[in-house]
């Protein structure tokens, strides 16, 4: 059997977990949490990084920081995970979905401005598969309409757009360290804060609405409840596991990129024959090989290929059912414009196994089976 995903293990995880236990600090904001945050800040050149229990929580924090209120509208692609929308729905927002680009599966930047109304509060670009959205255009729209930009960079750790790390271009960036991601703490995430003026508010929200951080810095003699907030601190054991990943971040990235390139080379002839499509990465983007997907002719062919590979012991996965087609999507949002690509492209896409440590012979077996299917 070749699994679809295996969470990365570097070999240092148990050492750091044991150190965390020995430190006697297992709740949030211990030494490993702070070490991970420092690594993120220095590596990605962001004002401040806050580890969170998940990317979902990072998105919720961002929604609070931009002060989403009932009746506000938030623009995003429909082709994304439900957390992208839920974070804003929980604050009473109405979600406005727009179509995607078929080449990258990212939000179509040319469709955003027409969806802006007087109620629009934010744009949430989702960097699908670790390939950046067209951020210059998005930031220009946001600037002209005085909108917040919250990057859902759950899949984008170590990816860049014109040399800038994903998650550091908008006002806020939200990362994921779920065990399906390139770097993991089991469950986990981070909020990248690119607005220095929002740092105190972010601390308060993350500390359950208290000014505890100011107290720990000696700025107040006791801390108290000062605003709305929640518990957005991960456990120190999770941070210790993550720190072992971040210490090997480049090696993990290189390994995945090598696997991605092997897939791309092996499947190129099938694309040249018009039998499938491979991922497209714009020249200004450097991706992190979060996934390798192919596109079939349609949902029937994809289903047949899934079953073919399953018979060969190869586990694959398709991805999101577009949110606007779900019951909750219809209740909490609307699709602006025409769904030219979102549904159709989502039904074609199939994700092949991709994880740290995927072996060359495994990739050869997978691609040989794909070729066998099309023969």
Automatic annotation (TrEMBL):
<feature type="active site" description="Proton acceptor">
    <location>
        <position position="181"/>
    </location>
</feature>
<dbReference type="InterPro" id="IPR012749">
    <property type="entry name" value="WecE-like"/>
</dbReference>
<keyword id="KW-0663">Pyridoxal phosphate</keyword>
<dbReference type="InterPro" id="IPR015424">
    <property type="entry name" value="PyrdxlP-dep_Trfase"/>
</dbReference>
<comment type="similarity">
    <text>Belongs to the DegT/DnrJ/EryC1 family.</text>
</comment>
<dbReference type="GO" id="GO:0000271">
    <property type="term" value="P:polysaccharide biosynthetic process"/>
</dbReference>
<feature type="modified residue" description="N6-(pyridoxal phosphate)lysine">
    <location>
        <position position="181"/>
    </location>
</feature>
<dbReference type="InterPro" id="IPR015421">
    <property type="entry name" value="PyrdxlP-dep_Trfase_major"/>
</dbReference>
<dbReference type="Pfam" id="PF01041">
    <property type="entry name" value="DegT_DnrJ_EryC1"/>
</dbReference>
<dbReference type="InterPro" id="IPR000653">
    <property type="entry name" value="DegT/StrS_aminotransferase"/>
</dbReference>
<dbReference type="InterPro" id="IPR015422">
    <property type="entry name" value="PyrdxlP-dep_Trfase_small"/>
</dbReference>
<protein>
    <submittedName>
        <fullName>dTDP-4-amino-4,6-dideoxygalactose transaminase</fullName>
    </submittedName>
</protein>
<dbReference type="GO" id="GO:0019180">
    <property type="term" value="F:dTDP-4-amino-4,6-dideoxygalactose transaminase activity"/>
</dbReference>
<dbReference type="GO" id="GO:0030170">
    <property type="term" value="F:pyridoxal phosphate binding"/>
</dbReference>
């Amino acid at each position: 059997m070749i699994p679809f995903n295996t969470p990365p293990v570097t070999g240092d995880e148990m050492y750091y977990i044991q150190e965390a236990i020995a430190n006697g600090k297992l709740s949030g904001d211990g030494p490993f949490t702070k070490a991970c945050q420092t690594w993120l800040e220095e590596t990605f050149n962001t004002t401040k990084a806050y580890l969170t229990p998940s990317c979902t929580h990072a998105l919720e924090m961002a929604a609070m920081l931009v002060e989403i209120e009932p009746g506000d509208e938030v623009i995003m692609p429909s082709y994304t995970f439900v957390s992208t929308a839920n974070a804003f729905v929980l604050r009473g927002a109405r979600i406005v979905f727009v179509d995607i680009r078929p080449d990258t599966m990212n939000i179509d930047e040319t469709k955003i401005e027409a969806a802006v109304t007087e109620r629009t509060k934010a744009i949430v670009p989702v960097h699908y598969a670790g390939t950046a959205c067209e951020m210059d255009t998005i930031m220009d729209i946001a600037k002209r309409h005085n909108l917040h930009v919250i990057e859902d960079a759950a899949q984008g750790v170590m990816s860049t757009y014109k040399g800038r790390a994903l998650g550091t271009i908008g006002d806020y960036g939200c990362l994921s360290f779920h065990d399906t991601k390139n770097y993991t703490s089991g469950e986990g995430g981070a909020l990248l804060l690119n607005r220095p003026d929002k740092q105190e508010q972010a601390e308060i929200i993350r500390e359950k609405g208290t000014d505890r951080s100011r107290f720990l810095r000696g700025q107040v003699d006791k801390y108290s409840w000062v605003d709305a907030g929640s518990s957005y601190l991960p456990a120190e054991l999770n941070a210790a596991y993550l720190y072992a990943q971040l210490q090997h971040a480049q090696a993990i990235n290189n390994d995945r990129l090598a696997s991605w390139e092997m897939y791309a080379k092996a499947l190129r002839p099938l694309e040249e024959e018009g039998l499938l499509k491979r991922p497209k990465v714009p020249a200004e983007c450097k991706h992190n090989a979060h996934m390798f997907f192919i596109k079939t002719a349609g949902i029937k062919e994809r289903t047949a290929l899934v079953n073919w590979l399953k018979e060969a012991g190869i586990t694959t996965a398709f991805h999101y059912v577009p949110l606007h087609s779900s019951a909750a999507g219809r209740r909490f949002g609307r699709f602006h414009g025409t769904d030219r690509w979102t549904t159709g492209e989502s039904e074609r896409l199939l994700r092949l196994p991709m994880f740290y440590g995927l072996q060359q012979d495994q990739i050869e077996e997978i691609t040989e089976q794909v070729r066998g299917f099309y023969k």
